[in-house]
Amino acid sequence: MRRHTGDDDLAPAALRTAAHPSPHAAHPVPEPAYAISTRGLVKSYPGPEGMTNHAVRGLDLDVERGETFAFLGPNGAGKSTTIAMLCALARPTSGRATVAGADVLTQPHEVRQRVGMLFQHSAMDPDLTAEQNLHIHARLYGLPRRHARRRAAEVLETAGLTDRRRSPVRTLSGGMRRRLEIARQLLHAPGILFLDEPTTGLDPHARAQVWEHLRALRETHGSTLFVTTHYLDEAENCDRIAIIDRGRLVAQGAPLALKAAIGDDRVVLRTGDDPAARQVVRGIAPPDRAVTVDEGGICLRVPGGSAWIPRFCAALEAHGIAVHAASATPPTLDDVFFHHTGRSLDGASPARPPAGPVAPAGSKAAAQAGGSR
Amino acid sequence: MTTYTWKSPDTPYGESTGRLRRELRAVHALIHRDLLRLACQRTHTALMLLHPVLYLFILGGGLAALIPRSSLGVGYQAYLFPGMLMMTVQTPAIMVGIRLITDRESGYLRELLMAPVHRSTLLLGSCAGGTLTAAVQGAVLLGLAGAAGLPYDPLLLVLLLAGMILASFTITALALALAVSLRRAETFHTLLGLVMMPLLFLSGGFFPLTALPGWARTLSEANPLAYAVDLLRRVIALRVPEQAAAAGVEWAGHPPPLLLEAALLLTSGTLALLWAAHRFNRPE
User: Fold this and answer.
1) How many Cβ atoms sit within 10 Å of the Cβ of residue B270?
2) What's the complex ipTM?
3) How far is B152 from chain A (nearest CA, A)?
4) Can you give the C-alpha Rg of chain B in angstroms?
5) What are the strands of the beta sheet with A265-271, ordered from one edge?
6) DSSP state for residue A182 in the 8-state scheme
7) Using alpha carbons only, how large is chain A's radius of gyration in Å?
8) Closest Cα to residue B33, out of A132, A260, A90, A147?
9) Containing H/E element for A96?
10) Spatial distance between the Cα atoms of A235 and A1, rounded to a whole number of angstroms
11) For the residues of A255-311, what is the DSSP string, one character each?
12) Under 8 Å between Cβ of A35 and A65
């Protein structure tokens, strides 16, 4: 159930805008239909020897409400800096950003009241119990005492930690702690939840649990999730992905669209007579495609691979060649990342070749579903 | 598509709450945190309380026989008592500064900064929490008044407690002013090790300031701890005249009025807190 992410569904956007009376009607742009919207966001730090260190250079992002948005990039790409600016923790050097309908520069308190932020290295009072930690946090966010107690009980329930509420935090396992940290960010019922590497350092089981928890959250509350991650399988499950490298946005779009834009699917056919089949496939495939034969069958890379399979099969059968198996494998997100940055995301294999020939410019533009470049 | 509003009517956002109320709740949250921690770390608290008691009984007991009553006006243990009270509140007050730095290192401070309140409010909350925990510990040690030969006079105890609250506020604020500009806990510890001893010995808690050479006495006149000790000592003298000890801080040979001393402590604490808030407010 992938949501379409076009920029042009103005009708529902207008409806949602009407339901949300903006306290600052004087700022009509960017549209409040977006949970997060930035234009030309820049953050520079003074570097050594009078140099300026640009952490983020001109970021344009649009994240729709209720969307799960993945922010993907290598270490030092500017992910955490961007998040700090979006949470009104750091001031942008230039540009502007609207988060949950509030401007990060002029209304930082409103922004922070409406968002939750899970830091990569989150901290709690280890000696205090889960309940006590939550209570203090709720009070910091201005909840009255009775509400604070009720909300703490509610989020503990959601996190599945009700039976551990009186345990000191230091006695909880890593996965439980992470769930408690997420629960703590839900106390003030934020519309947007920022999660900086939410599953780093967790074992696969705890990782799955955290994601299940996040998915449930999104389904029951419609929260917008803004997630940074370097796990590709996690990004894969998000509605949209933005790839950031050296402070710049290099690609933005739905995972499928991003993958479709950069490369071609690998189509593999197993037939009764591979060499003969190769001649047939060559005849109908685009002329610039190499068709190879190996023990796995005949193989070629074409855009929209699965759409070609019926055509290949029909042609092969017309030539009396039996087709035993056919498959089309799309490129992975790692291929996408490599295509845009020239590096692999895990950094292990920088020399790995890209998934296929570089896609024509037109299809690349189609992948920029956010249309913000 | 999921539709939702930023704020459903039954959602207990703090957003509808008034500005000031929200800031006060944040201050209360930080005080609450400090009190919970105090309750959790019983061993640590007990050890902190033991420290001044050891001074009172070991140092006080040992020197009592050597120091003639005539030079102090009172027995040495009674003389040491105000200094001991000051030490009791000083340790937890200074811990607030150390905690600000360790909170910064652990990332807890970042969680606090995410709260939708002013940064100064967070600092005020830390200061209030530190002052209160220090005063609570000081109140426990007031129970030893009898050992120093003081009567358990309710008004005396209340006045001493008020003096300790004032002293803890000033010391907490000074510790915070120091901590906001330091990034590493080690630096703070080293600095404390360097200045704590002269501050203590120049406070008049262990021996009369009149016994010091002139230059040291001048230094002690700039020592906030000296005013704190002097304040406590003179509160005792006020209620129990026969326990009036030798003079503490003197300006041109005359002790400054009691209320002026209190005002000085309050002012220097407030100024330190304002400066700390100013430093802390700097955006990144």
Assistant:
1) 13
2) 0.85
3) 36
4) 21
5) A292-294, A297-302, A265-271, A323-329
6) H
7) 24
8) A132
9) strand A94-99
10) 15
11) HHHHHHHH--EEEEEEES-HHHHHHHHHHHS-TT---EEETTEEEEEETTHHHHHHH
12) yes
Per-residue pLDDT of chain A (373 residues; tens, 9 = 90+): 444 444 433 333 333 333 334 444 444 444 457 899 999 999 988 877 778 888 888 889 999 988 999 998 887 888 888 999 999 888 899 999 999 989 999 999 899 999 999 988 888 999 999 999 999 999 999 999 999 999 999 999 888 899 999 999 999 998 899 889 989 998 988 889 999 988 888 888 888 888 888 888 888 888 899 998 878 888 888 999 998 888 888 888 998 888 877 767 778 888 888 888 888 888 888 777 778 787 778 888 788 778 888 888 888 888 888 888 888 887 878 778 877 877 766 654 443 343 433 333 333 333 333 333 3
Nearest to A222 among B2, B15, B25 (CB): B2
Whole-Å CA distances, A103 to A15, A38, B118, B121: 21, 10, 17, 22
Domain A264-329: assigned CATH number: 3.30.70
Mutate to test the interface with B, among A141, A166, A177 (most CBs of B within 10 A): A141
Whether B110 sits inside 8 A of A123 (CB atoms) is yes
Range A209-236 burial, b when 16+ CB lie within 10 A, else e: bbbebbeebbeebbbbbbbbbbbbebbe
Interchain CB distance below 8 Å, A142 and B113: no
Q: How far out from the chain centre does Cα B239 lie? A: 23
Could you please report the per-residue DSSP string of B8-40? -TT---STTS-HHHHHHHHHHHHHHHHHHHHHH
Q: Which of B12, B21, B40 sits opposite A127 (nearest CB)?
A: B40
Look at chain A and count its residues: 373
Residue A243 phi, psi (nearest 5): -105, 125
Whether residue B111 and residue A137 make contact (CB cut-off 8 A), yes or no, is yes
Chain A positions touching B7 (Cβ under 8 A) are: 189
Rounding to the nearest 10 degrees, give the CA dihedral for residues B90, B95, B96, B100.
150
**Which residue ranges make up each domain of chain B?**
19-280
Pair of tokens at residue A281: 């496939």
Topology (CATH) of A10-257? Rossmann fold (3.40.50)
DSSP string, B104-119: HHHTHHHHHHTSSS-H
Quickly list H helices, chain A. 10-18, 79-86, 108-114, 130-140, 145-158, 174-186, 204-221, 232-236, 255-262, 274-284, 305-318, 333-341, 361-367
Q: DSSP assignment, residue A163?
A: G
**By the CB < 8 Å criterion, does A297 face chain B?**
no
Task: Pull the structure tokens for residue B11.
Answer: 């959602």
Residue indicated by tokens 């959250």: A217
- 8 Å CB contact between B180 and B276: yes
The one-character DSSP state at A116 is E
CA separation for the pair A196, A213 (Å, rounded)? 16
Answer yes or no: are the C-beta atoms of B124 and B27 closer than 8 Å.
yes
